[in-house]
Automatic annotation (TrEMBL):
Belongs to the enoyl-CoA hydratase/isomerase family. Residues 32-142 form the MaoC-like domain. SUPFAM superfamilies: Thioesterase/thiol ester dehydrase-isomerase. It comes from the Bacteria. This is MaoC family dehydratase. Gene3D superfamilies: Hotdog Thioesterase. InterPro entries: HotDog_dom_sf, MaoC-like_dom, MCH/BMMD. Coiled coil: none annotated.
Length: 166
């Protein structure tokens, strides 16, 4: 049996400038309480070793299981800065939502509330807690949180970003 003939599909012109993961929004479109999550990730020994190499942090608490146990840790502890990196705005969908209005990452603070070890799965989120217009720009404040697979809050912090306004 012959297949029916269909008209050839002609591709529309492609413009990379209009290729967005989500529709871009402006400072004025953002709302306090909005949450931007990142995919969960399970840390492995390879992640910890790579970060140790890049950071040059050679403290034995990060790689020596026996040293860690002798000093009260159940296993080597993942580097705090590596854990903090999971809250980077680019790890979430936030930069996709704000499109071209992002100017800079102004500041951050955090508290490390529990140890993270290889094998832990982390769940990062940024929640908008403040929107402060400043002339042609605006400051977005977010609460940065990281939970582990047991539901424990392992990191709590705050980020501030500068965005262009309309």
């Amino acid at each position: 049996m012959a297949q029916p003939r269909t008209a050839p599909v002609t591709p529309e012109a492609f413009d990379p400038e209009t290729f967005h993961v989500v529709p871009a929004r402006t400072f004025e479109d953002l709302r306090v309480g909005e949450v931007f999550r990142a995919p969960s990730r399970t840390l492995t020994d390879a992640h910890a070793a790579a970060f140790q190499t890049v950071s040059a942090d050679n403290h034995p608490v990060h790689y020596d299981a026996e040293w860690a146990r002798r000093h009260g840790h159940p296993a080597p502890v993942v580097h705090g800065l590596q854990v903090l990196a999971f809250t980077a705005p680019g790890a979430t969908l936030f930069p996709h939502f704000i499109g071209d209005v992002f100017i800079s990452f102004l500041e951050l603070s955090c508290a490390f509330l529990a140890e993270v070890h290889s094998g832990d799965t982390l769940y990062p989120a940024l929640t908008i807690t403040g929107l402060e217009p400043r002339g042609d720009d605006g400051v977005v404040t977010t609460a940065a949180t990281l939970h582990n697979q047991r539901g424990e809050l392992v990191l709590s912090g705050q980020h501030k970003y500068l965005l262009r306004r309309r």
